[in-house]
Amino acid sequence: MRPIPIHQYDENTMQLAKPAYDRRGRVLLSASQIVHPKYLEKLKEIGIRTLIVEDAESRGISLEEMIDIPTWLDVVQTVEEAFAAVAGKKPLPLRGLQQGVAKLLKEILSRPLILPIPSSTMAENLAPYAHAVNVAIMALQVGKSLGYHELMLRDLAIGCLLHDIGKAVTSESQEHPVAGFDIIRGVREVNLLSAHIAFQHHERLDGQGYPRAIRGNAFLEYAQICGICSLYDHLADELPPHEAMERVMGTSGTAFSTEIVQAFVRTVPAYPPGTKIRLMSGEDGIVTRITTHMQRPVVRRLATGEEISLAEELTVMITGSI
């Protein structure tokens, strides 16, 4: 299986490998179905831009690295409830958020790699909440790489799930970090550091961010982790993952510290399983899995079916995705 832009779907050669969901997070089309053109147009109408499909080229690729969909959906819906509560001037559903964090932590701590589900697989109205969950998933892996203990990871995850909560009360982009900070710091059960994640996630190391244009050590590490994960998730929504990764790597020492950028690169693959790629030799291939090196995956040559581990074959290089 592999993710594809919805416009590349071919009903003659592909079928759904993962369900498609409607605006309320309910199954619209189940896995193993062939998508009729009429339903394809319906998916486009509700803002779905990515499908996870099975075809001849991706057969045998399990995407076992991807987070469990029911778990992911549960947390997405919890974040949606949090936004609705804040918009309605009601208390944050803290118990649900804490349970969501516990589910994510269980996945992150028990597996070497967890891939988020692209937010573009969801209806447009759910994408902001899916984004928050994906940021939390990546941030937890970065924190794990940096040696954070479980309590630190919980505080990091709560802040990431709620980093855009200010958007529930303001439509002004420049104002939502302050609004989010005020909302979260008003919950005494939540660590103030989690509130600062919402406050600072649009800041930059060089002082070119907002809302306060802070610089250097004033830009907290937790907020840097959230900021870099949010940046990547937004970029990967529009660009191939390896191009999004290149943009992120270019922020080292300017937007984010070198240590945070390096930790991100260690934990997020530029070529996730299911990505079709071109090798320097001119051969086309597809990434089947990631084993020992995040940026040197196992690749199947499409012409021959031969699999090679780029972590072992150091002279074989990927030139880009196709």
UniProtKB/TrEMBL annotation:
Instruction: Give the CDD domains listed for this entry.
Output: HDc
- Identify the SUPFAM superfamilies for this entry: HD-domain/PDEase-like (SSF109604)
Ranges where the HD domain occurs:
128-235
InterPro entries attached here?
Answer: HD/PDEase_dom, HD_domain, HDIG_dom
Name-wise, this protein is HD domain-containing protein
State the organism named in the record.
Cohnella candidum
